[in-house]
Amino acid sequence: MVWLSKREIAYYLILKKRFNGNIFNIGEALDVLIFFGSKNIAKKIIKRLKSKGFLESVGIASYRIRDGEEVLVKLLSNYISERLYRNLKLRGYGVSLNKLEGYNVIEVNKCDSNVFTMLDVVRELGIEMRCIDWKG
Fold it and tell me: Which entry of 40, 61, 69, 84 is 20 to 30 Å from 31 by CA?
């Protein structure tokens, strides 16, 4: 996954503040973004924001801004689940990672209180974590 550039974040924030969840077309976006760079760059960044999920296409050349936190959670849930899986495995836990459509499932054998505290945190990030056996 390629991270967002500063310019992409800036353009996203500008569009978010200007259109505030309303539908806008490419011309309206370019009218705003032209003050921050060239028209060609603005078009490319709009295309990148759409491909990364920050803009939702609602018609021919019409878009709506999506919630940034929601998009970041979706983009990063795979990364977070893989990091969690690797670190639990390195710490000696019996662990498996299953990638299903839309979400990841981490199963941990012999959970302890440290792992148990992570359950609610990762669920909020779209990762299902299950304790197979409780080690009190």
Answer: 69
Sheet architecture: strand order including 127-131: 94-100, 103-109, 127-131
46 and 82 share a domain?
A: no
| Phi, psi dihedrals of residue 41, rounded to the nearest 5° | -65, -40
Q: Which two tokens stand for residue 99?
A: 């990638």
What DSSP string describes 40-73? HHHHHHHHHHHHTTSEEEEETTEEEEPPHHHHHH
Residue that finishes a domain, picked among 27, 42, 66: 66
Give the tens place of pLDDT for each residue, 84-97: 999 999 998 899 99
User: What CATH number should be reported for the domain holding residue 59?
Assistant: 1.10.10.10
Q: Are 104 and 127 in contact (CB under 8 A)?
A: yes
1 within domain boundaries = no
Distance CA 14, CA 63 (A): 14
User: Domain residues for 98?
Assistant: 73-131
Share in percent of the chain as helix, strand, coil (round to 5): 50, 25, 25
